[in-house]
């Protein structure tokens, strides 16, 4: 693409210049010198000399947590939204420098961040097109990093294929919010956020406590006639559990997203099907309807229980994530799966 | 005759084997008296279109390969080696990603155009230089153009996750996308390509003796070349529109046909069509069950099964003896 070559070269040169400027000193002028704060994330000790002043947030869960923690004014860039941010963060998000796709490593470094928060592990994986380099390689440049811990890979540079199943819990969401709050110097705010999430989750759990547990499949129809389903490892399994349901593909634990054929879905005959519509920063639940309609009108699925009973619902991939969106997602799923318990 | 029975048996397997248990009685009932039974939907909307797509695309690829090898007198000239599948896939992807044209009917023309452009480029590149389009130069030009097209396709498809998931069909062939409208729309194109290809059997035999001899036998080399290129483009382009860029079938199948029936195109062409259908259907059936619950795309199983055969051919034959 010759059109974009020149800006790319300029931004690379700018990044190089900034790197030279940053050499030897603390990564950002605003950082306070002190004993520093350390938190352990996915087996890596993350130490900041003082609260990061130049935070970069990639992917929905990371973008929403920085807004929830009230540090939006310290954000130097955000990238990649799966859907519109929660209503309470729309104004804060509109004020950030946002990229609809992930930046290149050069573009990331050109923003001169001192801390990168990622909602998914692929950002630091050595495989895959979305990698911006391993966490170790960023740390060498004075950039600390964080992965949402329900997706902790077994080692730096790994991705979904190496998620530690023990880390896929709601407790890890609370731990992330608290740890990030401590590192960012907003521990009190983090406690409020956690308390708010816990209260809303408890309310959902009370509402569905004695309801029969539905078997729910979270399904993305693909262009080639196959489907991607959320396996048991995916955090949506925890959200379904809170909302009084089970993942119909809970036994698939090799990775988060599993490609299956139509016959596999017919064989499992789930009670409810949710789509997994993704990825555009403007998406609202209404944008998930076409995916739901594709499943409802697929002639091969006419005999499915969920189709016959009108229980195929549009659902956003953003609501599958482990982050501050969990209570919102749990309330939504509970209302879809147990409409009688509103 | 045995081969025709083999194709029927493979089609039967393709109807019966899969994650949902389906018996021959289920198939008969679904076809004759569908009544909303669970097996009816599986047979009518999944297994039948998939089997039909495998038959059509496999036959198209086998036939295209036999014509391509006869045309270029090159044993390494499968449609995939000539860049035809890659060109068709790239154009199909462009049509879907940028123009958003609907099922087969719209973008099959893009596939034809892509296939024709790729084949034209390969033949033009291979013809450059003093000694003309030798088998080795055709294979090398085809490899280069195919690599370029694959890179372009990957560059579009891999740009982000979402696009990759939606369009991975265009990287590796698959029969999972087939539905009845797609299959029915493909039939006239493949029928036309097949008629044209079969009509070329005698001229291809004459051309095998060299242009001068062919001319003295009343053949018209330029007309033959144009018709054969058209047949390859239509057959491989339609197969790609239905099943994506499946490799190795068009390359390997004609060799098996010649091993069974000798070099005469009157026999090689129909045998290649039958064998192509047989191989693609079996590869698809294998892909459905080996990694359950995941499906292996037929392009992958065809490559896994076809690559060793291709390497064997490379070792055994002196390149160019056709």
TrEMBL record, chain A:
UniProt entry keywords in alphabetical sequence: Signal
PROSITE patterns per UniProt: FE_B12_PBP, PROKAR_LIPOPROTEIN
Source superkingdom: Bacteria
Organism name: Pseudonocardia hierapolitana
InterPro entries tied to this protein: ABC_Transporter_SBP (IPR050902), ABC_transptr_periplasmic_BD (IPR002491)
Homology family: Belongs to the bacterial solute-binding protein 8 family.
Residues in the signal sequence: 1-31
Annotated Fe/B12 periplasmic-binding domain residues: 54-342
SUPFAM superfamilies referenced in this protein's UniProt entry, alphabetically: Helical backbone' metal receptor
Designated name of the protein: Iron complex transport system substrate-binding protein
TrEMBL record, chain B:
Transmembrane feature ranges: 48-69, 81-101, 107-126, 138-158, 178-201, 222-248, 268-291, 298-314
GO molecular function: transmembrane transporter activity
Entry-linked InterPro entries: ABC_BtuC-like (IPR037294), ABC_transptr_permease_BtuC (IPR000522)
GO BP annotation list: siderophore-iron import into cell
Family matches, as Pfam families: FecCD (PF01032)
Topology relative to the membrane: Multi-pass membrane protein
GO cellular component: plasma membrane
Signal peptide start and end residues: none
Keywords: Cell membrane, Membrane, Transmembrane, Transmembrane helix, Transport
SUPFAM superfamilies: ABC transporter involved in vitamin B12 uptake, BtuC (SSF81345)
Compartments (UniProt record): Cell membrane
Family: Belongs to the binding-protein-dependent transport system permease family. FecCD subfamily.
Name of the protein this chain belongs to: Iron complex transport system permease protein
Provenance organism: Pseudonocardia hierapolitana
Lineage: Bacteria, Bacillati, Actinomycetota, Actinomycetes, Pseudonocardiales
């Amino acid at each position: 693409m010759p059109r974009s070559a020149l800006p790319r070269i300029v931004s690379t040169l700018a990044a190089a210049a900034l790197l030279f400027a940053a050499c030897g000193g603390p990564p950002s002028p605003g950082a306070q010198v002190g004993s520093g704060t350390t938190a352990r994330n996915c087996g890596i000790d993350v130490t900041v000399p003082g609260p990061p002043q130049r935070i970069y947030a990639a992917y929905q869960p990371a973008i929403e947590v920085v807004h929830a923690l009230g540090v939006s004014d310290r954000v130097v860039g955000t990238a990649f939204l799966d859907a519109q941010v929660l209503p309470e963060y729309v104004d804060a998000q509109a004020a950030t420098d946002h990229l609809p796709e992930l930046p290149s490593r050069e573009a990331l470094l050109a923003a001169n961040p001192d801390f990168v928060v990622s909602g998914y592990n692929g950002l630091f994986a050595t495989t895959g097109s979305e990698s911006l380099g391993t966490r170790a390689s960023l740390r060498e440049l004075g950039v600390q990093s964080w992965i949402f811990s329900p997706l902790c890979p077994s080692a730096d540079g790994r991705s979904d294929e190496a998620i530690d199943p023990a880390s896929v819990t709601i407790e890890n969401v609370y731990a992330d919010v608290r740890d990030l709050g401590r590192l960012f110097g907003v521990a009190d705010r983090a406690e409020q956020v956690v308390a708010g999430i816990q209260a809303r989750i408890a309310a959902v759990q009370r509402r569905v406590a004695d309801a029969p547990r539905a078997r729910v499949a979270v399904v993305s129809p693909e262009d080639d006639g196959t489907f991607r389903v959320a396996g048991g490892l995916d955090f949506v399994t925890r959200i379904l559990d809170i909302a009084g349901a089970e993942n119909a593909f809970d036994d698939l634990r090799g990775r988060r997203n599993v490609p299956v054929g139509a016959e596999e879905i017919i064989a499992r005959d789930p009670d409810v099907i949710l789509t997994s519509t993704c990825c555009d920063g403007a998406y609202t639940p209404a944008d998930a309807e076409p995916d739901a309609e594709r499943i409802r009108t697929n002639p091969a699925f006419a005999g499915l229980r969920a189709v016959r009973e009108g229980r195929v619902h549009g659902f956003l991939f953003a609501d599958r994530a482990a982050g501050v969106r969990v209570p919102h997602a749990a309330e939504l799923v509970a209302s879809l799966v147990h409409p009688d318990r509103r | 005759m045995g081969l025709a029975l083999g194709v029927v048996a493979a089609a039967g397997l393709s109807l019966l084997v899969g994650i949902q248990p389906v018996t021959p009685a289920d198939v008969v009932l679904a076809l004759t008296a569908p009544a909303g039974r669970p097996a009816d939907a599986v047979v009518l909307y999944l297994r039948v279109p998939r089997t039909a797509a495998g038959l059509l695309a496999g036959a198209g690829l086998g036939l295209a390969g036999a014509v391509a090898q006869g045309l270029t007198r090159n044993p390494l000239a499968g449609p995939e080696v000539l860049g035809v599948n890659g060109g068709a896939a790239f154009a199909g992807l462009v049509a879907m990603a940028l123009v958003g044209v609907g099922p087969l009917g719209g973008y099959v023309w893009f596939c034809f155009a892509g296939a024709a452009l790729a084949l034209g480029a390969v033949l033009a590149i291979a013809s450059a230089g003093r000694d003309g389009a030798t088998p080795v130069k055709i294979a090398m030009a085809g490899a280069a153009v195919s690599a370029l097209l694959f890179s372009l396709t990957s560059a579009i498809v891999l740009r982000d996750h979402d696009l990759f998931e939606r369009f991975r069909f265009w990287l590796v062939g698959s029969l999972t996308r087939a539905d009845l409208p797609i299959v029915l729309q493909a039939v006239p194109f493949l029928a036309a390509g097949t008629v044209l290809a079969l009509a070329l059997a005698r001229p291809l035999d004459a051309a095998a003796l060299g242009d001068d001899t062919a001319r003295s036998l009343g053949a018209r080399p330029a007309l033959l070349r144009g018709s054969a290129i058209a047949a390859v483009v239509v057959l491989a382009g339609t197969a790609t529109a239905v099943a994506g860029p499946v490799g190795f079938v068009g390359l390997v199948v004609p060799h098996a046909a010649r091993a069974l029936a000798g070099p005469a195109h009157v026999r090689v062409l129909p045998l290649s069509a039958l064998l192509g259908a047989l191989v693609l259907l079996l590869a698809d059936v294998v892909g459905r069950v080996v990694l359950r619950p995941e499906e292996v795309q037929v392009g992958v199983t065809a490559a896994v099964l076809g690559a060793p055969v291709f390497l064997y051919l490379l070792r055994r034959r002196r390149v160019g003896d056709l």
